[in-house]
C-alpha cells in the first residue's frame, strides 16, 4: 500500500519527500510535497482518506505550495513499552 500512496503523490508532483520512519503497516509517517495550488485539495482529500492530516501549508509564489502531511494513526507506538524498545536498541 505504501507504494500506492507514493505513486499517487508522484502523480501530482515530482517533488515529494517520504520519511524513512514507517508505521507497522509500511506507511511513511510524514510526507512533504511541493505542488501547484490546483492539485493541493485533491491530494489532501486522498491522503486524508488514507489516515493523514495536513500539518502545514506554505504558499511559495503565485502557483505553488509546500504541504506537510503526518500519519494520524500512530497507536502502534503507544503499544510499545518504552523499556522494551530501549532494550532492542541496546542489542543492535
What does this structure look like?
This protein is α+β, with helices and mostly antiparallel strands. It is 42% helix and 29% strand. The chain has 4 helices and 4 strands. Strands 1-2-4-3 form a 4-stranded antiparallel beta sheet, with helices on one face. The chain is globular, with a radius of gyration of 15 Å.
Mind sketching the topology for me?
Blueprint: H1 2-12, E1 15-18, E2 30-36, H2 37-49, E3 52-59, E4 64-71, H3 75-79, H4 82-91
Antiparallel strand pairs: 1-2, 2-4, 3-4
Annotation, overall tally of beta strands = 4
Distance between the termini: 29 Å
Count of helix runs: 4
Write down the CATH topology.
Endonuclease I-creI
Characterize the largest beta sheet: strand count, sense, and whether it forms a barrel.
Answer: 4 strands, antiparallel
Instruction: Give, in spatial order, the strands making up the sheet with the most strands.
Output: 1-2-4-3
Q: Percent of residues in beta strands?
A: 25-35%
Quick check: average pLDDT? 82
- Overall tally of structural domains: 1
Rg, Cα atoms, Å: 15 Å
Unreliable spans are: none
Q: Secondary-structure element sequence? A: HEEHEEHH
CATH architecture descriptor? Roll
Structural class: alpha+beta
Provide keyphrases for this structure.
single chain; 92 residues; alpha+beta; Endonuclease I-creI; four-stranded antiparallel β-sheet; 4 helices; 4 strands; 29% strand
At a glance:
A hairpin with a 4-residue loop joins strand 3 (52-59) and strand 4 (64-71). With 92 residues, the chain is an alpha+beta fold. The protein has four helices and four strands, in the order αββαββαα.
Amino acid at each position: 500500500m505504501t507504494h500506492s500512496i507514493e505513486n499517487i503523490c508522484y502523480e501530482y508532483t515530482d517533488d515529494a519527500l517520504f520519511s524513512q520512519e514507517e508505521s507497522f503497516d509500511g506507511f511513511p509517517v510524514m510526507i512533504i510535497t511541493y505542488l501547484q495550488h490546483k492539485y493541493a485539495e485533491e491530494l489532501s482529500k486522498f491522503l486524508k482518506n488514507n489516515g493523514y492530516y495536513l500539518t502545514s501549508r506554505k504558499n511559495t509564489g503565485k502557483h505553488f505550495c509546500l504541504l506537510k502531511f503526518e500519519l494520524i494513526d500512530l497507536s502502534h507506538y503507544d503499544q510499545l513499552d518504552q523499556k522494551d524498545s530501549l532494550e532492542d536498541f541496546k542489542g543492535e
